Amino acid sequence: MTSVQIQARSTSATAVHSTVADVMDTAGPQVCDDMTVEVALSVMAAARTGHLLVCDDSGLCIGLVARAQLTAARDGSSYSDRVQLRDILGEGGPFASPVTSMAEAGHVMRFSRLDALPVVDEHGSALGVLALAR
């Protein structure tokens, strides 16, 4: 996936009216929440991405996991090869709508200290990811 750089330009009319849909990456790899951490790390490596969208058994996006999060879980003292993504995801979210302004999405990402934000439609299906450039 390509990354998107968010630049704060409060004086720019373009930045004020730009939405997440204008700059998000397409959905990319989506995995089910019953996938194990080891398999998820393998999928991530094969897809050459730093994060995966996680969906429940009905296909709705419930969150996003990053490589660092998976690695930390794997390296933890309570880790076993049976740990699933649902075990480390927590509450999931936050999410963005495609009509969310870039200013609002940037604020959420900064406040939550996120490198990537899932973009979902009104039904909760994953549409894409808003990712910070590295």
TrEMBL record:
<dbReference type="Pfam" id="PF00571">
    <property type="entry name" value="CBS"/>
</dbReference>
<feature type="domain" description="CBS">
    <location>
        <begin position="24"/>
        <end position="82"/>
    </location>
</feature>
<dbReference type="InterPro" id="IPR046342">
    <property type="entry name" value="CBS_dom_sf"/>
</dbReference>
<keyword id="KW-0129">CBS domain</keyword>
<dbReference type="InterPro" id="IPR051257">
    <property type="entry name" value="Diverse_CBS-Domain"/>
</dbReference>
<dbReference type="InterPro" id="IPR000644">
    <property type="entry name" value="CBS_dom"/>
</dbReference>
<protein>
    <submittedName>
        <fullName>CBS domain-containing protein</fullName>
    </submittedName>
</protein>
